[in-house]
Amino acid sequence: MFIRNHWYVAAFAEQLGPAPLARTICGEAILLYRKSDGGAVAMHDGCPHRLVPLSIGMVEGDNIRCKYHGMVFSPTGRCLQAPGKGASLALTVERIYETAERYGMIWVWIGDAAADPAKLPDLPWLESPGWAQTRESFSIACDHRFVIDNLMDLTHEAYVHPETIGQTELMEAPVAARREADAAILERFMPDIDPPPYWAQMLGKPGRVDRWQVCRFTLPSTVLIDSGVAPVGSGGFGGDRAQGVTGQVINLITPSTEQSCYYFLIQARDFALDADAAMQARFNAAMRRVVQQDIEVLEAQQAYINAHPAARLRALNIDAGATYARLMMQRATGVKADSTFAGPVES
Amino acid sequence: MFIRNHWYVAAFAEQLGPAPLARTICGEAILLYRKSDGGAVAMHDGCPHRLVPLSIGMVEGDNIRCKYHGMVFSPTGRCLQAPGKGASLALTVERIYETAERYGMIWVWIGDAAADPAKLPDLPWLESPGWAQTRESFSIACDHRFVIDNLMDLTHEAYVHPETIGQTELMEAPVAARREADAAILERFMPDIDPPPYWAQMLGKPGRVDRWQVCRFTLPSTVLIDSGVAPVGSGGFGGDRAQGVTGQVINLITPSTEQSCYYFLIQARDFALDADAAMQARFNAAMRRVVQQDIEVLEAQQAYINAHPAARLRALNIDAGATYARLMMQRATGVKADSTFAGPVES
Amino acid sequence: MFIRNHWYVAAFAEQLGPAPLARTICGEAILLYRKSDGGAVAMHDGCPHRLVPLSIGMVEGDNIRCKYHGMVFSPTGRCLQAPGKGASLALTVERIYETAERYGMIWVWIGDAAADPAKLPDLPWLESPGWAQTRESFSIACDHRFVIDNLMDLTHEAYVHPETIGQTELMEAPVAARREADAAILERFMPDIDPPPYWAQMLGKPGRVDRWQVCRFTLPSTVLIDSGVAPVGSGGFGGDRAQGVTGQVINLITPSTEQSCYYFLIQARDFALDADAAMQARFNAAMRRVVQQDIEVLEAQQAYINAHPAARLRALNIDAGATYARLMMQRATGVKADSTFAGPVES
């Protein structure tokens, strides 16, 4: 059910050091660690000898030593040392994964095709001056596609996040979904509205605003949300953001098992660049609070589906963005219909 | 395996208010809440849109609003509001359940036939002056039929409840089981005995007593126990209870899953009518203590059966009451033999 | 998958008294208790009447009384008392197990053949003057064969137990495995080495030593490890241990379920015979610490195998001892190949 031959985020760069880190990505048990030159290593998390996870072992220089019998494996999975005289060095770690470190994240290539650096997403805001960021990672006990549904949906904010980013106008403004060759897009433009509390504070200017939200899904499981406000008529919709404030919310969802995933969330912003530690801490706390509200719903959704295996999600017109994303995922896995999705329904 | 087209207790009346209450009854996920006029609503606990339990949502007036996208459903399951412009209101909640509020309890009708008010049990002691009551509810991790077995059994008290309601005479007095058209009955009369501590205190008179216990099972899962003592020869057995004290123990067991149930227990009494708060608290504490003793045994029984799926309950002559009740339940479900019950065994 | 018609340890003698003790041995639920004469009783842990574990009941004299209806069963499983007048005494406990108390342990015979006292292992150090002992028991959440693999392996000490019994020489000294008619043997002799900290302290003499380790597996799941040091050339290898110190480590592994076991560990020693309570407490603490290190690895190994059911253990030359033991176990169960073991692999 997982989309292969793609990069998935295994960790934020700062989460990986020389200590072993265990992840399950697309159902595959993976050990990660950093070599002495800082390069990231990813390999199957099991000793080929007696089937103990290598992640309970010890990193020694560039290599990993199994906790059980002390076998040492190189970053390429070759056995460098084995117990006993004349011991076999023929055992190798089952699988080595290509890694990439980019945008402050460790990416792992899942699939049998050669790793393709060009398939990393383009996230310029994470490498450009004039942008700051807030980042948090989460583990969620749900099918990763439910997180994508949630992000490709511009109507739930009013109910799941009423006190932060939701506002009544969200229910009233028309939402448009469309497809590009390699993306599903959902967008909403709200001209001439009162800004919600968060955005009013970030803009720091009185008066009504134009507000926009543009969600863009790309394979395998990336959702970029371009979101912001600008004074009415100042050009925010047209691309001239000079008078407004813009957030680029980067959502990277890594499937773990069929019912669990990792969620790496970064909000890049072109405002509040000089946020002090206290303000940055508030940004992080707000991000965690918003995601916790989503997690409550997503895990309840998974529990419902577990108890009702024959139930199928229904899609209304507001779900067009999520539906387009689901169809892209279905095509990418070659699965005609996934187990939870009934397909688009006219509303 | 559940008996359908019957009323089951979902909650004591005081347990249901305007906040959503989630129950699983006979395997069905049900949301309950009270409308503004106090009427009870029961419906399938899942939003037909994205499969989130409605019970994590918000009751607004008479309606329930889904936590995820804010869809509003009426007590009849009709969609009154949906997100987005021109949104579909065609989705309906999968199932609405008939409810009844009677005897201080909320009853839900499970089944496809029309709800039949006449099938509510007759519990006059809960509506008559001259009777007080003690009530507690429990969740038990066992097949609900084990609770019925336990209640249709007048021999376990000596061992499970030795310090409260048990006494040696219980082991010695003959127990008689018989069948009526719509009931299984188990009864024991103990003439001219010393009363056990609880009953001696409640009677408040010195001397020996006649003690009676009459258990009556009716479908789907109700056990009424008429129990009391009266001075020897004063007519307690014959129905003249004027000199004695009587408890009507009303046991209502609601199947939840195949291995769990709710147990609503009420002891109506024609004595201690003026019990003050402290005495009433002692009655409740005693009730909880007795049931906890049963729960310990019942959950151990379920654990044994889970570990030994081929094992079958055996029935001795003392189990005749429970056996008659089991046979009534088998007939009602159309199941020839249930998975745990070997059928009656001569003793 | 369990080897039947053998004795298994159910408890250390001091762990069994008149109170009921529940064990699952080779998948069988067993109740144990001591009679008034101190004799051990073992029987199926379930009342034949209503399927409640007898181990929640009460031992009365030599008999066990079921908690539910008070049925009393004798040590032979016969019903001595049943509830109700004229009650049936025909029900019997499903199975009685032969027990033996020897070497300070309670043994239970698992199998349909007659219990054979001659099949108890020979453990003279537990009955001889001149020997003291340290004993601990453990429950481990892994296939019991992983514990045997671990004990028939003289290479893991350096990595799993580096600070206690491990030392570099262990990696360098040749290990020899061989088979006798009824045993698999793994041995290592390390002449003229510096003793590791533990042994240096126990020997209490300066200078280099000869160190030996001889592991002997016998069916069904016993591993005896003869281990010690003696001054270089003083005869320790040849059997004259007079100048040295010897530990006889007795490892008795009792399968519980397919993924859990009990581990009874005794180290008999011919040194430190006058250890005071504080020193003995240190021995016990050290034993628990060493085993906890093994348990960490063993439970991780089980978790890996659960997540990778198709994976197979590989055997290098260092695993020859464990491999011989596995082959003996396979032959004893009549299973051609067990689910986790790929068979011997040339190294």
From TrEMBL, chains A, B, C:
GO molecular function: 2 iron, 2 sulfur cluster binding; metal ion binding; methyltransferase activity; vanillate monooxygenase activity
Keyword set includes Oxidoreductase: yes
DNA-binding recorded as keyword: no
EC number: 1.14.13.82
UniProt-listed CDD domains: RHO_alpha_C_DMO-like
Any Gene Ontology biological process: methylation
Coiled coil ranges: none
Pfam families recorded: Rieske, VanA_C
UniProt superkingdom: Bacteria
The entry's keywords: 2Fe-2S, Iron, Iron-sulfur, Metal-binding, Methyltransferase, Monooxygenase, Oxidoreductase, Transferase
Domain Rieske intervals: 7-108
PANTHER family per UniProt: 3-KETOSTEROID-9-ALPHA-MONOOXYGENASE, OXYGENASE COMPONENT, IRON-SULFUR DOMAIN CONTAINING PROTEIN
The protein, known as: Vanillate O-demethylase monooxygenase subunit
